[in-house]
From TrEMBL, chains A, B:
Species name: Litchfieldia salsa
Pfam families noted in UniProt: TetR_N
Lineage: Bacteria, Bacillati, Bacillota, Bacilli, Bacillales
Keyword Phosphoprotein belongs to the record: no
Official protein name in the record: DNA-binding transcriptional regulator, AcrR family
One GO MF term attached to the UniProt entry: DNA binding
DNA-binding region: 32-51
Keywords: DNA-binding, Repressor
Domain HTH tetR-type, residue spans: 9-69
InterPro entries found in the cross-reference section: DNA-bd_HTH_TetR-type_CS, Homeodomain-like_sf, HTH-type_Tx_Regulator, HTH_TetR, Tet_transcr_reg_TetR-rel_C_sf
Length: 219, 219
């Protein structure tokens, strides 16, 4: 499943790419609209036309990334009707990793922005992040209820999961320069998804063998 | 073990606390030296005296936080001589969580800054982060060698570990407002450390029972 963030026009697309790149290297406050226009090779007037100003552009980046993000996780949540909680959780992990890989400049910019305490981010927390929590929580609770998952502390599990999923895209520079891993390559995501699958099987799921051992012992 | 970042004078301490707070709410570029001086209730001249300018202040925040951080992990690494790799890894996890809790404003500011692509951060990556990688890698490799740990992919495991450890302190607002968890309370760290201990025991360590089962089966 490949979800690319919607970019309606060529000019808009160029502005979005340039802005995400500049915000990642120089920070939001360190970047001017003029620089974005130069980098995108468009008129400053184009930016005003599409996004009003720099704040409007940032808001657009954040909400378009998170719209796609939320739809990916909603997709896994909806599958709870026909699949096990474990399968839904693994589907979520795989699709979110690919979504971040496919939109890596934007992912980095938005994941970084979310750590700041601003009016925009307060809104994001009460909308997108609350929705995200609802979906993950539902998957985890279903798994616990159906005795597929251990009795987990939901917030702590969400925290661990989100930490592991965002790490490669929030810190691409650390990834490439210290760990020598390329988070934007399919090879990496495939391998990392397998690692997270091991985490799900061993730490989240109830052990199958253990229940087998205990039945043998009690007989 | 409580390690507090060294603050040599009362004035310096007030400036550091004010700067960390303002950088977290308004961002580095969005904060002026004048605002820091006002918040810290000191003279602008004091800031120039101790830190030169805003960049010097940021550099001081980053390096003093990471000095303490590195000493915490070095402490766990040194214990490899007398303890098992599992014990060293658990000691590292517990002490880093407490270190971040005890310096939470600073932790948030530095963890956030590290995601940016700047000259300062490039230096941090080649010094502190490379050292940190060496220590964690050594602990993991010792555990693998002594057949206490599974055959892990080292960079991927470091990534997961760091993701889980930094999440509560990089995103305190998300923690409190969406997950309703207080990352700066001892109660939280104790509980979260237990969760991570479970991860170490189940996902990192080789299962003890399994080897027991297989010996029984082969008999």
């Amino acid at each position: 499943m490949t979800v690319k963030v919607k970019k309606t026009s060529k000019t808009k697309e160029k502005v979005i790419d340039a802005a995400a790149y500049l915000f990642n290297t120089k920070g939001f406050d360190g970047t001017s609209v003029r620089e974005i226009a130069r980098k995108a090779d468009v008129n400053v007037a184009n930016i005003s036309y599409y996004f009003d100003n720099k704040a409007g552009l940032l808001e657009y980046l954040v909400s378009s990334f998170l719209d796609g993000y939320t739809s990916v996780i909603e997709h896994a949540y909806v599958e709870l009707d026909s699949r096990s909680a474990r399968e839904c959780l693994l589907m979520f992990i795989k699709n979110i990793m690919n979504y971040q890989k496919d939109n890596n400049q934007l992912a980095r910019c938005v994941l970084r922005e979310i750590t700041l305490d601003s009016v925009l981010i307060r809104e994001v927390l009460t909308t997108y992040m609350t929705k995200e929590k609802f979906y993950i929580k539902s998957i985890l609770e279903t798994g616990i209820h159906q005795q597929e998952f251990r009795k987990l502390l939901i917030p702590h599990t969400i925290m661990q999961l989100k930490g592991m999923l965002t790490m490669p895209y929030l810190h691409p520079q650390y990834m490439t320069e210290v760990l020598h891993v390329m988070p934007n390559e399919t090879y990496f995501t495939d391998q990392y998804v397998k690692e997270l699958e091991r985490w799900v099987n061993l730490t989240i799921c109830l052990p199958l063998e253990k229940s087998f051992i205990s039945t043998r012992t009690t007989k």
